[in-house]
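Next up, a specimen:

>
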Amino acid sequence: MMNMPWKWFAAAAALAFAPVSFAQTPPQYTIDLNSITVPSLPGLHSFVHAQGSPAVSSRWLLIGGRTNGLHEFTHSSDGGTVPPKNAFPPSQANRTLWVVDPVTKQAWQAPLPSTPAIADALGTTNASAVQDGNTLYVIGGYGLNSTTQQMTTFPALTSIQVDQTINAIVAGQPFTQYLQQTSTYYDCPAAGMAAYTPCFNTASSKCKPGPGWAACQQQAQTDCLEVQKKATAACGQAVQKGAVKGLPTDTGYYAKVAGGGMQKVGNVFWLVFGQDFEGLYSVNEGDYGKWPVSQVYTERFTAMWFGMLQNKLTAAVLNVIPSDPNSNQFHRRDLNVLSVLDSDGTTPLVAAYGGVFVPGENTGYQQPIYLKGGANPMTATPVLDPYAQMMSQYECATLRMFDANAKAMTTAFFGGISLYYLNPQTKKLSLDSGLPFINTLSVLTRNADGSHTEFVRSAPMAGYLGSNALFIPNPTVARTSGGIIALNPLTQKTLAGWFYGGIQANAPQNGTSTASSAVYEVWLTPGSPPANYWLPAVPPSLTSIKQVRE
């Protein structure tokens, strides 16, 4: 595990919650939703998806997730002698693969493969996934291990050939030949540590007691950290060339992640934050250590490589950026991990927006973290941004857009769970540290100078929805690298894509909820919006984000 400098946290903290101007120009477009019906489509949330090529009509492939609403908040009984009820009952896990055509409004289904390891790993909730061309990579996720009958976070990586699988399901044919799985990962951080240890032992042993001993030890550490870095990098390069003989491996320690996110930059897949949850869920701290067995936030950016070596799915952990021991900013799960563009319109960043829970508090994170230089796993750097995001701290459907003229990157967040909500009577933001479900669409823009502006749409959505839902872009709309919609070519009302699934609640707090089967067309219309269509996402009685936090 590489040790990274953490001066960025101190610098960012000094700027955190800086004053924000209220004289902001609202977005020059509107975003509107139109409900459509796809018969027989199930309610799903916390699932992963892929989109077929135009050769298969850009149909969706939906995998995993759950068919019920928000999980129950369970605990043990009879003085801790009776285990809690399973808050994620296997009967409500989605163990069906779905293919959806939103244009013809058709849906097809097929059961998961009979192979237990593959079926279990693809029947999880809150797995991470990235589609790379015609391959969907699915990793981690929480669910039932059918062999042990224990709830666990899975270590497996599964690759799926998207077009072939979609075609097979539509035709009612077998598709298991298009799936591969591994739980073995070449461990380059271990290779680096294997080089560091003898280096330091040798170098430090030459340090003579007395004056200069501490400086000698420090120099030995500095020199050997460079040896470690080179060995880690050499391991990653060797894996990608197929020269894997003798390299250390692990059985999925870094892959056991639920509630995190994954994005690809160059040839590097970044698995970001989340948790390794083992055993049954409980809200009673007295149950911890037994129910659940453990709950460990990963608190890291993990750089990985996936590919085929000798026609076999192969994976490697290239490097790890761990949490700063003096900060809790990596202690996040259930957040939005997105690929966004820097102001030049070409440089990719991995963005971590929101997340829960701040240690010791039932609240969410507000400051974005941007991973810069993600194409190089050895030098990539996370940067904590000073802006405090007001809306949608929990994972929700998101639409990403880039304005090449303004050099601005915008992300639209469709509701979900939020630290702030738009009061329907006052049309002002109000704080609810209990993290309610909201019915508000918001947009967060990272401007050319790195500053942020945030607006909320004054008109509510159709309900309290969006949490663990997905936005799937219309493949006919012009997009930049990373699948981000290009705003400038749009000259008229355009079907940007579809918003599907997620948790739908009947109240912000203490209500009931279901898994939504609703599909909404998302229409993007360039031009000046009607008056008060967008409202600044800052409480108008306050003059700075710092005051909001206080």
In short: The chain has a mean pLDDT of 93. Helices lie at 7-15, 116-122, 162-171, 188-205, 213-241, 545-549. DSSP finds six helices and 37 strands in the chain. The first helix runs from residue 7 to 15.
